[in-house]
Amino acid sequence: MTLAIELEGLSKSFKDKKAVDNLSLQVPAGSIYGFLGPNGAGKTTTIKLMLGLMRPDNGRGKILGLDIEKESESIRRRTGYVAEMPHMYGYMTVQEIIKFCRPFYPVWNSGLVEKYLDFFSLPLKGKIKNLSKGMNTQLALILAIAPEPELLVLDEPTAGLDTINRQELLRIILEEISVQGRTVFLSSHLLHDVERVADQVAIINQGKLIDVRSIDDLKSSVKKVRVVFQKEVPDDLFSLPGIQSYSREGKAYLITIEDNLQDVLNAIKNYPYFALDIIDQNLEDIFIDKVRRSKA
Amino acid sequence: MWYYVDPQSGVPIYVQLKEQIKKAVATGLLTEGEQMPSVRELALQLTINPNTVSKAYQELEREGIIQTARGLGSFVAKRQKGKEQEQKIALDKALEKLMIEAYQLSVDADTLHNEFIDKLAAWKDRLVKGAQNNDSGNRT
After folding, report:
1. Most B CBs within 10 Å, among A169, A190, A194, A216, to test the B interface
2. Is residue A213 part of a domain?
3. Which residues, 6 or more positions from A194, have their beta carbon under 8 angstroms from its beta carbon?
4. Is residue A120 part of a domain?
5. How many domains would you assign to chain A?
């Protein structure tokens, strides 16, 4: 398996605050990788380290096989990047910034640029400072995909976009990058978008990696079980491997289980119960649970 | 369009897709030999990851529901004679689910029996003929 991104023990502190803490990631080439975390979890810092826009205090990393410290210029030439708040020269017009960006890259797909300028109806002669937030993101996306990058990195690209624009943005990412077999690294706190398109997700909080898994795997292995027992049950029932947490209200229990569902169910069923439901968890449920537990 | 996925469901998207394709085949919406949309097409239409569509197709192929010809695409496969053991296990599971539902809804045995007969009558022509007239492949 070829890796598009390989990070090993990356750390970065600002004064005494650890923004990224011993972070390791492996992103397979050709995948859509969701990078999830609450605000301030260290997502943007990680991306800046990846692209050589910041230097790590510790650890190392390779992007498309290139060293993040020594070869960051080559990395940026081969990677498309849509920043959280794209800062583009506000005094330039749309047309001017396209002309300005073009010479930095070995490849530039003008057909693609025209197609999406037209699709989004961006005003060619309009000044960037006068564009709406949505148009800004759309323009940043066009500039990012024009060089036909092997890797597209997006930092909260859908924040501030309406539903239709968000869906369109995802479709373009799929059409222009994913179905071409190229890699997408999508950082977001908006889980619905990630849930729709990502193969794998990494969840981080307070700079640390909490979990890495395929979304399908997360959904099939993390469940909640709601059970109402007929009699009191011993507390050690809930110390079985796989049980992440539980809460109780009288004889009713809500149990969060990861990975060991069948064994836990068998153990529970040894005690007479009135009702037992297995509740599927979507990404949001799982995310909130994991982030909360990581704080505890 | 027939296919619809709910990304926010706790059921993986590829499983949702698989079930819908199976349903489309079982109800005759997709017919034997019919070409499936390409992975790319379906991924873009549903705005989902192409790998997710591939995964659904791969599993359907393993289950003998579709066939993939290199370079040509995927097609609805000829219905295979199910392996007896697998048939039995899958059927047993489905029936058990039905019984649980019936229990929860307090449906009595006679009602369940009649409902089953009605459903069976509606589906009869679409199901494989029994052992008695196995060689008359014609459907009436």
Report:
1. A216
2. no
3. A34, A36, A186, A188, A201, A215, A283
4. yes
5. 2
